[in-house]
Amino acid sequence: MGRTYDGASSRRLLASLRDIMAASGTGQERLDKIVSLIAAEMRADVCSCYVMRAGEVLELFSTEGLNKTAVHNTRLRVGEGIVGYVANHARPVALDNAPSHPSFAYRPETGEDPFLSLAGVPILRGSKVRGVLVIQHKDRRGYAEEEVETLQTIAMVVAELIAQSELVSPSEVSTTGDPVLLPARLSGTAMSAGLAMGLAVIHRPQLTVRQMVAEDSEAELERFNAALVTMHSAIDDLLEAVTLAGLGESLDILETYRMFAEDRGWLSRIREAIHVGLTAEAAVQQVQNDTRARMSHLTDPYIRERVQDLEDLTNRLMQHLAGKTSGADAATQPDDMILVARSMGPAELLDYDRSRLRGLLLEEGTPSSHVCIVARALNIPVVQASEALNRIEPLDQLIVDGDHGQVFIRPAEDIQMAFSEAVALQHRKEQMYAEIRSLPSVTRDGVPISIQLNCGLLIDLPHLKASGAEGIGLYRTEIPFMVRSSYPDVQAQTDLYARIIDEAGDKPVIFRTLDVGGDKILPYMSGEAEENPALGWRAVRIGLDHPSLLRQQLRALLLAAAGRPLSVMFPMIAEVAEFDGARRLLDLELKRLAAQGVEAPSRLRVGTMIEVPSLLWQLPALLPKLDFLSVGSNDLTQYLFAADRGNPRTSTRYDSLSPPMLCVLRRLVDECARHKVSLSLCGEMAGRPLDAMALIGVGFRTLSMSPPSVGPVKTMLRSLEVAALRDYMTGLYFGSDHSLRDKLKTFAKDHGVDI
Ligand code: PEP
Ligand code: MG
């Protein structure tokens, strides 16, 4: 074991480092001094610095202990040798027996054979590796955490030397492969639908840390504490602004965020680094680099999103330390702006002027990341594409195609024209949809169709008024559970449901009880891994096995209704006995609240989803017990055809517009009519104009869909003559077709139905 490396040694080293940086000399001279200093202070036999050159080559730029003739001659590719390994993984290594490491590559010209132990750290700037800093010892020894941390701190200083282009020319450091002005296309992942054109605004939250070593640690600590206080109050302001703007769900996300801001582990690590002698900015950045490095190998999406939240906070804290309040400087933003960011937190997105924001391009992120949830609610197209920052210059013309997951950079005239037309068409359609909002939702031959919304976020609620929908046909209660970091208690649930009922006003809301499991995972609920989660322990099955969970939710719903009407729907019911079980729990809660003198809902409607085919054979027993039935066609199709809805190889193999599915749907229409039970459909089918047309032909009169589908579906139905369609479809139910899509399209075309 090596001697312990304490805070005093680290402070001494950092103080000398400050002197080197302040002294005159070329970049190379300063680097040589830094390398000698590290070797001396850390009592290392070797200290070397490798710098990234064009073509992803790491060149030995300076060394103390290896052959000096190897400087500027020894080069390693990223991934080659331990140095290349550190660069490749952007993570420190500490090895007591380096030659036994699988990546070890021996370079005879360096004369490094006698050195057994090695610690290496990446030289990081932003998200890019600019080089590698290494110390080596002859003897076999471990490295203390403090030693690795000190190397990381010094690596930050070296990163600045490189960035100030004192070591290699900026053209070499730039990784932009293409000549800057040529058009380019990036293909990525579609994360939020829609088309956007505009000028690139590079979201650079990172402020350069100019001074690494503090003159006075106490004063730095005070500065840090003051910045923390202003950051907290700024987050509070943001929370308030978001609430006022009706973006209530972002509230939840930001609350999680504030929790991080108060995270003691994070704060104490920063304070420790200040105590060791760093400036507040350098300490914040060091903890950020360290967290990034420690978490970079974790692939769990939830943890990665939390790391993202922490980065977002770090950037805010840096801005507050620098005396700036926001990274979004409105004065310099173009009117049509496309944000380009490595990654971004939801609060950072909300910092930008929404009236100018057209699209978002992220290098990292998943559709379920908080920033995407917020972007979708704001109707901003999002594409994720790696390499975006390397290819795009500020104010480059960009087209973000959130429907197909592609981005055009500096597009040629013809592409710009084509997309301008598509964007204009999109706007015209949106305008047209806005115009028909107040027109009745009736077919050409006078059949009224009730259009309802599928919601899951408070942020969706403003759409209820804007779209002209009649109510919320499906409120997915699991979504607010999914964006929280802990299980909401009865009070938190009551508050949430009450806000939804309040905001919906006199429009009805159908609350579906918790539908987790399958692809909907709650981060804080650990369950056993299932071989077949879609067929596993999910939705009402969990609620029936853990009645207290379901009872708490039902209690919260009853309390939230507070004497107003309430509709409750159970998901994934597979047999009447399950419905009875769930209903019994609701009755128990009703009784309990009555005993406490709580007012019962003025009208309680209870229904179920039909997603599991077995229920089709219990309709006569089930329907008399229900007030309404809603078809979950997403799951019903998956179970009917035994085709995983989340697997692209099977999900498109069978068509919902096929004879078997239409027969099932028609049967439901007939049975519900016989038992006088309201029927609706709330799967994705309802929101696709052609499918919605077929559903109306089958006999559905209530369709529940996501907000952007309301305009297209309403346009379709207002041009439809139901009687003609019903007659046409009579001949389709029992054929041998794989799909009826083409036939239905032809019908629409021949009859002027606007699909
Ligand atoms: C469905 O299965 O069609 C449905 C609406 O439920 P979810 O998509 O939430 O599973
Ligand atoms: Mg479902």
Q: Structural class given helices, strands, pairing? A: alpha/beta
- How far apart lie the N and C ends? 73 Å
Please give the CATH architecture of the largest domain: 3-Layer(bba) Sandwich
CATH topology of the largest domain: Glucose Oxidase, domain 1
The percent range for strand residues is 15-25%
Characterize the overall form: elongated
CA-based gyration radius? 31 Å
Provide a descriptive summary of the structure in words.
The structure is a single chain. With 755 residues, the chain is an alpha/beta fold. It has four domains: 7-169, Beta-Lactamase (2-Layer Sandwich); 186-414, Phosphohistidine domain (Glucose Oxidase, domain 1, 3-Layer(bba) Sandwich), CATH 3.50.30.10; 438-444 and 633-681 and 683-755, Alpha-Beta Barrel (TIM Barrel), CATH 3.20.20.60; 471-608, Phosphoenolpyruvate-binding domains (TIM Barrel, Alpha-Beta Barrel), CATH 3.20.20.60. 45% of the residues lie in helices and 16% in strands. It has 28 helices and 22 strands. The strands form three sheets. The chain has an eight-stranded mixed beta sheet with strand order 7-14-13-9-10-11-12-8. An eight-stranded parallel beta sheet has the order 21-20-19-18-17-16-15-22. A six-stranded antiparallel beta sheet has the order 3-2-1-6-5-4. Strand 1 (46-53) and strand 2 form a beta hairpin. Helix 2 runs antiparallel to helix 4, helix 4 packs across helix 9 and helix 6 packs antiparallel against helix 8. The longest helix has 28 residues, at 217-244. The protein is elongated. The N and C termini lie far apart (73 Å). The relative contact order is 0.07. Residues 173-181 have low confidence and may be disordered. Magnesium ion binds at residues 571, 611, 632, 634-635. Residues 474, 476, 515, 611, 632-635, 682-683 line the site of phosphoenolpyruvate (PEP).
